[in-house]
């Protein structure tokens, strides 16, 4: 038994189970669809969806999800995290049901947007519920389990999708969400207490509106650029408009006395560096994962199920090690732990520059395992550092900011690194396509899948496919080195600004607008021997520290 008074909720561990299952549901759905794309394109066994319709089946979810994450996190803090968690599960389950029985591609795209709305309500609520029910000393361990579930969902999604498609129809990849969402809804209603900001102040409606417009425009520009190229004016118009609106959002938040997000938080290293770090890691990791999945299935000929199984080392290492990262942070500090994790991720991503069609499968598994070890020592400490900079009632804001940056970073990684892949591939495959008719040449130069699609129509298909495989591998190497360089930038930021091993445990670096202390110490987690900054006064005066109260019903 601990020697200090534990301020956590008595049902905190079952509550953690509810949040983890809810998060698994949301994150797994972002990966499970990938293995169903070929089936959905089949006019007999699927919906006969075109390439553009398949892309929007994925991106309608991402667009709504990323665009509304911040706003729904703010609203959850104000009107009740439990309420938003349950509402999100209900909407997500409804969207899954509509997706499973979609009659045409347009119906599927719209149903996926409904799922994105539910996911945007669920994800920030899960982390803010954890912050409100756990004692600050137990919170790093709980966040470790929360972070591990992200890695697990990323790898389990393709495996589960492959199993379902082997035995059932395509709609099963969505229908499987419905009973899980219902179970989470019942368990959440019975176990999760309501909590909210006890002093919400006035609602910053202009700030919320600006955040939605800016994030939606930026995300749409990134997605469309990744699909059709960044050489089109409409793409840059959307990206620049999104950035401009977000800049106006920052200007507005600095001047209002009731901000949705106090942007002065970004002057606090304990908040700003982990947020940026998460964005860079997911930019690099998501981009390489997207490219490597095509390499494994097309160049090496693995089935979707086998490909999903190969990604298990990435998930299992995070599942085992992420909950233990808090102990390392207490011993060595966030700078050492996150820096070491970034180093491992960078080595693993750079290792893909040595992979080709003949590289043994075990080497690929080792690279993914090393990346998982690194991720386990980045995501959980970074998330805890973000929440440690805020009082409990502002947890939804911190969670929403971190998760929004994560989603936009991942979307940027897939789009930007995907565009680099396409450009390098097009240059390298061109010598083998010069004799092809215009339509076939454009298809073969557009993607490796396109080359495999036109090859059966040619007399000398082997020569084209051999050149296409080599071109894709060369492009993969370029993408891997760029991703590794991005993690190097993150490592420099960690070494320069991430806090080291804490000597004492100060209170949150932030309490309210007007009470920000950028010069305050920046530990990643409190010292277990120090008084609890979120508990009542240890002298027994009964005066809780300001800024950490929650309202529970």
Automatic annotation (TrEMBL):
InterPro entries: MFS, MFS_dom, MFS_trans_sf. One of its GO terms (cellular component) is plasma membrane. The chain crosses the membrane at residues 12-36, 56-75, 84-102, 108-131, 143-163, 169-193, 205-223, 235-251, 271-293, 305-322, 334-355, 361-387, 408-427, 471-495. The keyword Membrane applies. It is found in: Cell membrane. Residues 15-502 form the Major facilitator superfamily (MFS) profile domain. Residues 506-553 are annotated as: Disordered. Coiled coil: none annotated. It is a multi-pass membrane protein. GO terms for molecular function: transmembrane transporter activity. The keyword Coiled coil does not apply. Its main location: membrane. Residues 520-536 have a biased composition (Pro residues). Keywords: Membrane, Transmembrane, Transmembrane helix. PANTHER family: EXPORT PROTEIN, MAJOR FACILITATOR SUPERFAMILY MULTIDRUG TRANSPORTER MFSC. This is Drug resistance transporter, EmrB/QacA subfamily. It comes from Micromonospora echinospora.
């Amino acid at each position: 038994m601990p020697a200090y008074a534990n301020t956590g909720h008595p049902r905190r561990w079952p509550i953690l189970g509810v949040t983890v299952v809810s998060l698994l549901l949301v994150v797994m759905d972002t990966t499970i669809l990938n293995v169903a794309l070929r089936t959905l394109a089949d006019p007999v066994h699927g919906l006969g969806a075109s390439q553009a319709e398949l892309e929007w089946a994925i991106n309608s979810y991402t667009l709504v999800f990323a665009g509304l994450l911040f706003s729904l996190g703010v609203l959850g803090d104000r009107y009740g995290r439990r309420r938003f968690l349950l509402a999100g599960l209900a909407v997500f389950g409804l969207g899954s049901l509509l997706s499973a029985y979609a009659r045409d591609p347009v119906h599927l795209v719209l149903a996926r947007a409904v799922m994105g709305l539910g996911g945007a309500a669920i994800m920030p609520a899960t982390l803010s519920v954890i912050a409100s029910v756990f004692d600050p000393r137990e919170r790093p361990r709980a966040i470790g389990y929360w972070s591990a579930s992200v890695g697990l969902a990323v790898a389990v999604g393709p495996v589960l999708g492959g199993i379902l498609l082997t035995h059932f129809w395509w709609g099963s990849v969505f229908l499987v969400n419905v009973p899980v969402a219902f179970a989470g809804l019942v368990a959440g209603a019975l176990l999760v207490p309501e909590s909210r900001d006890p002093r919400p102040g006035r609602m910053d409606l202009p700030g919320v509106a600006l955040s939605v417009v800016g994030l939606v425009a930026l995300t749409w520009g990134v997605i469309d650029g990744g699909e059709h190229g960044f050489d089109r004016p409409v793409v840059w118009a959307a990206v620049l408009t999104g950035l401009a609106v977000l800049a106006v959002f920052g200007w507005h938040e600095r001047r209002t006395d009731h901000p949705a997000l106090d942007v002065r938080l970004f002057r606090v290293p304990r908040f700003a560096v982990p947020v940026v770090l998460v964005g860079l890691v997911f930019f690099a990791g998501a981009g390489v994962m997207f490219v490597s999945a095509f390499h494994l299935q097309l160049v090496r000929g693995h089935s979707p199920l086998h490909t999903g199984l190969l990604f298990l080392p990435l998930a299992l290492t995070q599942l085992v090690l992420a909950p233990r990262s808090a102990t390392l942070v207490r011993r060595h500090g966030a700078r050492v732990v996150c820096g070491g994790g970034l180093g491992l991720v960078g080595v693993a991503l750079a290792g893909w520059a040595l992979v080709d069609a003949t590289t043994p499968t075990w080497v690929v598994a080792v690279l993914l395992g090393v990346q998982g070890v690194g991720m386990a020592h980045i995501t959980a400490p970074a998330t805890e550092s973000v929440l440690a900079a805020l009082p409990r009632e502002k947890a939804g804001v911190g969670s929403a900011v971190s998760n929004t940056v994560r989603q936009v970073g991942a979307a940027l990684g897939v789009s930007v690194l995907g565009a680099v892949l396409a450009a390098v591939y097009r240059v390298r495959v061109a010598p083998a396509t010069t004799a092809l008719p215009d339509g076939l040449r454009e298809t073969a130069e557009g993607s490796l899948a396109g080359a495999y699609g036109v090859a059966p129509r040619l007399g000398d298909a082997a020569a084209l496919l051999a050149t296409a495989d080599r071109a894709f591998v060369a492009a993969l190497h370029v993408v891997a080195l760029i991703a590794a360089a991005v993690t190097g930038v993150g490592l420099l930021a960690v070494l320069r600004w991430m806090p080291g091993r804490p000597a004492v445990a100060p209170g949150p670096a932030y309490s309210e607008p007007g009470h920000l202390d950028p010069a305050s110490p920046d530990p990643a987690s409190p010292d277990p021997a120090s008084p609890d900054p979120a508990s009542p006064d240890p002298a027994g005066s009964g005066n809780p520290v300001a800024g950490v109260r929650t309202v529970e019903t």
